[in-house]
Amino acid sequence: MRRGSASIAANPVLIGAATTLVVLVAVFLAYNANSGLPFVPTYQLRADVPDAANLVVGNDVRVGGTRVGTVSAIDPVVRRNGAVAARLTLKLDTTIKPLPVDSRVIVRPRSALGLKYVQVTRGRSNRGFQDGATVPIASAKPAPVEIDEVLNTFDDRTRAAGRTNIDEFGTAFAGRGPDLNRAIEELNPLFLNLVPVMQNLSDPRTQLSQTVQALGRAARVVAPAAETQAELFRNLNTTFTALARVAGPLQQSIAGGPPALDAAIRDLPVTRPFLANTQGLFRDLRPGVSALRTGAPALADALEEGTPVLRRSEQLSARLEPAFRSIQRLADDPLVALGVRDLTNTARILNPTLATLAPVQTVCNYITLWFRNVASLLSEGGSNGTTQRFIIIAAPLGPNNEGGPSSAPANGPTRDNFLHTNPYPNTASPGQTAECEAGNETFLPGRQVIGNVPGSQGTRHDRTTIQRDTTP
Q1: Residue 55 DSSP SS3
Q2: How far apart are CA 394 and CA 391, in angstroms?
Q3: What whole-number distance in Å separates Cα of residue 359 and Cα of residue 432?
Q4: Ramachandran quadrant class, 225 (left: phi over 0; alpha: psi -120 to 50; beta: rest)
Q5: 434 and 428 Cβ atoms separated by less than 8 Å
Q6: Where does 121-256 have alpha helices with state H?
Q7: Any idea what DSSP says for residue 126?
């Protein structure tokens, strides 16, 4: 007996599995239909727009009202000027590839419920965007004002303010018909005069549009500080309310302002040198004040010790008063002034002489040495007194010796023995070499030296000491 082949239709398990698979595939395809079917080629572009305007991933992209793709991603992007824009990733059908480079992109509402879509207006350029290119933000049109944005302006506070305005306007206009008629009548000449004003404003040379744009930019700049400015005006209200309470004193101060300004204009230039000197004084006092920090304890002790001394100084001042009166009379005497002038002239005349004689003692100690040698001159003596010591020095023999007249410089009998004399030896006086020449000259045999010896002899000199009497 031949065995027959089994039919799929006769197996309920296989029928159920196939049905389930078909349903899953249909659900998957239906769910992903908006984002494109699998294995279907697409044309992807990125488009920069100023604002995503409530777009969501999956919204349609339409060209001429026909759906040609979907929005697959929305990302923020920062522009060069710091503003934040939106970058849309568009998954498009290949039927519109390539999209001309002069095409326009705008986000438009699809319904009043807030659903949006991206509308693409094709351009006429022969060049097109390559797959993956970015449509620049210059090709994006600003999103129009939506009905929901218009309706959102009438929130609870706006509606309440509108009711208040209508009530106040109605109250203001009630019973003022004649006044309104006269106002309308007066508007006729106003409008007649307004025509040339508007013509001037509309002239391109006035650049009114640029002014309005600049005002708009200025308003955007100050918008973040609106709350701060409002707080400023509230504080100003508080300040001016307080000033209103003292209006009288303020008026008096304002009235006295001009005389004060006149006095300042007159006196401030005079006080400027004083202020400059004061500034210099405080600058010079700065090191002293810094040092005062460490010297403050010593100064405090000095003040503590000096206070009793100052109290006792009153008696000293009373006792010195007659002496100061005598000094005052002496100063008032015209002969004293004459004597002071004579002393001044004497000091001025003697100043060169003293300047010359001072180094004789201060550098070379000559005056002290002279008195020391004079003291030893009278050291010889006996029971009857002290005698002067001296010895006769005979002149050497030979022609032109010092014992008589000569016709040439003196010399010795065997070799030249010229006379050496130095009447004004150097003592470091003004114009002289700083040396103690007297007593230090080197004898130069065979040479005649009259005056200063050549070369510096240095400032060597004999020193004198004080011999104290220790005799009991």
Answers
A1: coil
A2: 10
A3: 10
A4: alpha
A5: yes
A6: 147-152, 156-173, 177-202, 208-222, 226-245, 247-255
A7: S
Quote the tokens at residue 133.
């290119």
Q: In this structure, which amino acid lies at residue 125?
A: S
Q: One-letter amino acid identity for 29?
A: L
| Torsion angle defined by CA atoms of residues 144, 148, 153 and 155, in that order, rounded to the nearest 10 degrees | -170
Cis peptide before 100 (omega within 30 of 0): no
Model pLDDT for residues 40-75, shown as the tens digit of each residue? 678 888 888 888 777 888 888 888 888 888 888 888
Total length of the chain? 472
Residue recorded with tokens 């004079």? 374
Mean pLDDT computed over every residue of the chain:
80
pTM of the predicted model over 0.70: no
Q: Which structure tokens are listed for 70?
A: 């979907």
Radius of gyration of the chain (CA): 61
Q: Which of 84, 85, 59, 83 is CA-nearest to residue 73?
A: 59
Closest among 87, 105, 97, 88 to 42, alpha carbons compared: 97
CA-based nearest residue to 75, from 63, 85, 67: 85
**CA 461 to CA 441: how far, in whole Å?**
12
Say which residue the tokens 């114009």 belong to: 431
